[in-house]
Amino acid sequence: MTSARPTLEGVAARAGVSRATVSRVVNGSAHVSPEIRETVLRAVEELGYVPNLAARSLVTRRAGSVALVFSEPPTRVFSDDPLFASVIRGVSQEMEAADRQLVLMLAGTPRGRERVERYATARHVDGVIVASMHGADPLPAVLARRGVPVVCGGRPFSYGGPPCVDMANAGGAEQAVRHLVAGGRRRIATIAGPQDMVAGIDRLTGYRTALRDSDRRSIVAVGDFTRESGAAAMRQLLRDDPALDAVFAASDMMALGALRVLRQAGRRVPDDVAVVGFDDVPAAAYAEPPLTTVRQPAGQMGRELGRLVLELASGGDVGGPVILPTELVVRESA
């Protein structure tokens, strides 16, 4: 004869607390002391108690999951750019700590956005993180109006929208270009990021700010943060200004593409042309030569996004935007 399945009451009796206290611990409530929480969790483990998730959802009106939405096509999210994986890893760590499931969704097309909207407003998730937005992406505002807790990875185009986590993009770019100016570089070009993304706009702003008070002029080509676009932009820059002696690329992937083109053109780095990137992806340290870059904490961004969306979903007030610092990492390319 099989033994009866452990119950909430059994856990309460083993831990010496009320059934309500066990329920609060199992449902992740913060209103329980660490000592009581540890006692209850030990009783849960000893008895092998497994919460009834369906019943919990009916009582708490929570789905127990959060959606991470990238406003990008699959080819971009699952490319060789490791930043997406870093953000996913950071969000996942927060969800695991909170005993929530992470649902990954893509909204790179109008149809994809409609699918996310239907899924989220049907309360299949407790909150939504929208990242890698282009232009005036309508999804965050639509979800917020429908009462779905939503946070943005990167500052939205319009202020006053959902809370967000962003990087000090303009400041990081400005620091990178000032480093090139201080090194005596005269003709400093940039491979800017896409101008329908706030990160691309802010990094171009930082580049121009650093040059504003010098006698150096702006030399701009635009890419889309990919290696291929960086290579194409570098070829364009060499045609437009063969005498350029430095390049600031608004992403490491574009900088890696630029390094390849410079090598093919017989330009030595950094002797003839200095190169600085942005991101500090793992490949930057192993580039030839190792890439000077601006480090941004993508994993921390993921963790902060996870923290904020869980706070919103529990009815908390998260306040204004969270801006994470960037840091110049000097290597041999500049």
UniProtKB/TrEMBL annotation:
Keywords annotated in UniProt: DNA-binding, Transcription, Transcription regulation
Mention any Pfam family matching this sequence.
Peripla_BP_3
Please give the InterPro entries that the UniProt record associates with this protein. HTH_LacI, LacI/GalR-like_sensor, Lambda_DNA-bd_dom_sf, Peripla_BP_I
Q: Which PROSITE patterns match?
A: HTH_LACI_2 (PS50932)
GO molecular function annotations of the record = DNA binding
* Domain named HTH lacI-type: residues: 6-60
Which CDD domains is this protein grouped with? HTH_LacI, PBP1_LacI_sugar_binding-like
Ranges in coiled-coil conformation: none
Entry's SMART domains? HTH_LACI
This protein's record includes keyword ATP-binding? no
Q: What is this protein called?
A: LacI family DNA-binding transcriptional regulator
Species source reads Planomonospora corallina
- Taxonomy of the source species: Bacteria, Bacillati, Actinomycetota, Actinomycetes, Streptosporangiales
